[in-house]
Design a protein that fits this description.
alpha/beta, 8-stranded mixed β-sheet, 4-stranded antiparallel β-sheet, 9 helices, 23% strand
Length: 414
Amino acid sequence: MTALQTRTELPEITDLPVDDLGAGTGPAWLESWMRAHKGEIVGWRRAIHAQPELARREHLTSARISETLLRAGLEPRTLPGGTGVVCEIGHGEPLVALRADMDALPLQEQTGLEFASASPGVMHACGHDGHTAMLLGAALALNSAPSLPGRVRLVFQPAEEVQPGGALDAVDAGVTEGVRRIFALHCDPRLEVGKLGTRVGPITSACDLIEVRLTSQGGHTARPHLTADLVQALGLLATQVPLLLTRHVDPRSGTVLTWGAVQAGEAANAIPQSGLLRGTLRTADHATWTELEEKLRALVASVLAPTGVGYVLDHVRGVPPVVNDADSTGMLRDAATTVGGDAADAGTEQSSGGEDFAWYLEHTHGAMARLGVWPGSGPQRDIHQPTFDLDERALPFGTRVLVHAALSALEQAA
């Protein structure tokens, strides 16, 4: 193993070259900290990237975060599930929060980076390594302030990439209690570095997991009339249910059912006894999301009724849409323009992807924004792909945005 792999704490690296696109735009204590430590933010990201961990297995990442915060004189605590870290900076009221997710994806990295994943089949392909490094940077920068007009709660959340996600665990552990506002950033490879994509209202969509297991007595393909044709039933489900659903929901809701896995049978001349259909059900509308399970169950039952095939439908409710409130979104927008000027402010569309940051917004005000990580030229490598990488100039930029947003929220609520 390399020295990077054997160390638990995140290494202190100060000589990694990275441009600070927001240099000179903060209070004196922030400028002082950024000048001395912006290279460390990049180093933390690379260390986390080199040893990615899947959802609810982020033990090393959690330990590294805790030790980095402890060395700064802070008092982090691990979430009850054994991964994830919560820490507070400052004293008194009001209380605002900043959140980053920590988990990686089950992908084999193909970037060729010097600090590429050392864990086969696991990769930070969604920018969570960057999210974590920026929140660490914001934490230590805020900790360097002579005083703060309240407290900032740092939430290093596990298990964003699975359903049910780690945000529910964090909420159950009380991380939203007393919080006036919460903010988060998410890497966007379609947005140029130095820009922040903001949107009032829904910025992501609800996403549920759907699994239908079919059963039949099976039989010979020469005599389908003597059995229940399971493969035909799978085909009906796969084609008819998404089509019929479009006539049972408001078309303006952006509701989409897409199947991602179909499994049944082996032999060409045998009707199988079991089959599986698995997919995702997404909607851009919160009210529609609350009605979808009942509608889907009715449609599946009606489509399968004539076939004689048995079934079990498992509808796993995932996440609601992330719905940004106007005030919190304005604070992120103002933070971006403070750091990068008017050109840093970029609008963004609602995504059909899901994000469990939405669960925090069921309990408090807040907003998520999209952080530009594309260099401005060359390919735009999408998230959740084995070639994904980010322009590291986004790390000090994002760190500054988080700090400014937290300060703005504290000052407004004070």
